[in-house]
Amino acid sequence: MSEFVQRCINGDCRTVFGIDEAVYVCARCGDLLEIERTAAGVFNPGALREIWRERRMSLDGRNRSGVWRFREFLPFDDDVEVVSLGEGNTQLYDAPRCAQYCGVEALKLKHQGNNPTGSFKDAGMTVAVTQARKLGMQRVVCASTGNTAASLAAYAARATMECMILAPSGQVSAAKLAQALDYGAKVQEIEGNFDTCMRAIRELVEDGSAYLVNSINPFRIEGQKTVAFELAEQLEWRAPDHLVVPGGNLGNSSAFGKGFRELVDAGLLDRQPPITVVQAEGAAPFARFFRERAAEIVDEEHPQTLASAIKIGAPVSWKKAWSAVRDTAGCVLTVSEQEIADAKAVIGRDGIGCEPASATTVAGIRKLVNENVIKKDEAVVAVLTGHLLKDTDYVIKYHEGKLVAPDGARIKSI
Questions:
Q1: How far does Cα 284 stand from its chain's mean position?
Q2: If we measure between CA atoms, which residue out of 47, 89, 83, 43 comes closest to residue 65?
Q3: Tens of pLDDT along 47-84?
Q4: 232 and 363 share one domain
Q5: Bridge partners (DSSP) listed for residue 5
Q6: In terms of domains, do 254 and 359 share one?
Q7: Does residue 295 contact residue 348 with C-beta atoms inside 8 Å?
Q8: Which secondary-structure segment (H or E) carries 68?
Q9: pLDDT tens digit string along 109-155?
Q10: Environment class of residue 199 by beta-carbon count within 10 Å: exposed (0-12), middle (13-18) or buried (19+)?
């Protein structure tokens, strides 16, 4: 019997599902599910750190993965057949020019764009597709603005599964679309935005013929939470004073919240870092929810931003993300298209390339330093979620002075 279950996050429901049930939301109340250990684990923090360090020197495929290396905290038996591309083990860069731009003494960038398919999605996808294979699924599907599509297509190819993707027509960069096609996925573009695609894909999986791997799937979050483990290890098991992440569908912030919570519970860290989520002004339902202290989030029907990876008006994981922000005394804010573009250019001056959505973090840190929320001598880590080559059209237009915001304003280059 597995020591893990899937449990509804609704405090008034808490319905439990088996770890091998292909469910994505609670059948009783419709809320999200979370993977939970049924009995409190007893861990030796020193022994775990040593095991994880030794695995980095191993040639075994699971040990070389920056996700499966931390498998004591993943909901699988040791004999599971892992689907991996050697994900994780991403760099934690010092970024002195970004630090100067933001007004802090030092700033570190955790670059998830250095994953096999160029985005943070790989950390979650290796776990979700492994679960799909374990369940005997032949087809995996997702809705995507590009990064999820590329990642799923690659992992499905490794697992020899059929892959189908719904994407908003004309809103996915050519680079991301090319990845998905090259890995053998069937891509269907439909009118509308990401949220339209998400509604359609959820209907598609109702008959159980395909396995959904968007971040509504709790196994995606299990993989992505290991980034917190890797980051803590890179910081010599000290939590930063601030962790700043971009906000789109909010699976990433949810995963960091779960990861750091489990590290503290296991005695591997003494505290969780405050988690700050940054959204683009034109696609900011979570920031509005935070600012207004609302009881429920209000979806944006027509989100607008050039940072296409976070152009999402109905974030599925908002309740999990809110728990992460609330429980760590973090915050949520917005930045403008000009601020995103300028921050991205500054990141580039540090010799580090990222896609536009990633740059919201540096733009947000600059804003929070100016508002005295972040002190200049505090330890700050910004998460970059995607690689520079994910959206080269944006980069070229910015540096040529031809980049135009959704409201028609021309964005100036620095």
A1: 16
A2: 89
A3: 999 999 999 999 999 999 999 999 999 999 999 999 99
A4: yes
A5: 18, 36
A6: yes
A7: no
A8: none
A9: 999 999 999 999 999 999 999 999 999 999 999 999 999 999 999 99
A10: middle
Residues 182, 106 share a domain: no
Q: How far is CA 20 from CA 3, 73, 74, 133, 142, in A?
A: 12, 17, 14, 11, 19
Looking at the domain assignment, is residue 138 inside a domain? yes
Q: Strand pairing of 380-384 and 242-246?
A: parallel
The helix, strand and coil proportions of the chain, stated in percent and rounded to the nearest 5, come to 40, 15, 45
Q: Is 331 left (phi over 0), alpha (psi -120 to 50) or beta?
A: beta
Q: Are residues 355 and 383 in the same domain?
A: yes
Q: What does 224-262 look like in DSSP terms, one character per residue?
A: HHHHHHHHHHHTTS---SEEEEE-SSSHHHHHHHHHHHH
Identify the helix (H) or strand (E) that includes residue 223: helix 218-234
Interstrand relation of 33-37 and 4-8 (parallel, antiparallel or unpaired): antiparallel
Strand partners, 386: 119
For the chain, how many structural domains are there in total?
3
**Cβ 283 vs Cβ 313: under 8 Å:** yes
pTM for this model (two decimals): 0.96
Range of the domain at 174: 121-212
Is residue 129 domain-shared with residue 96, that is, in the same domain? no
CATH number at residue 356: 3.40.50.1100
Which tokens is 125 given?
């996808």
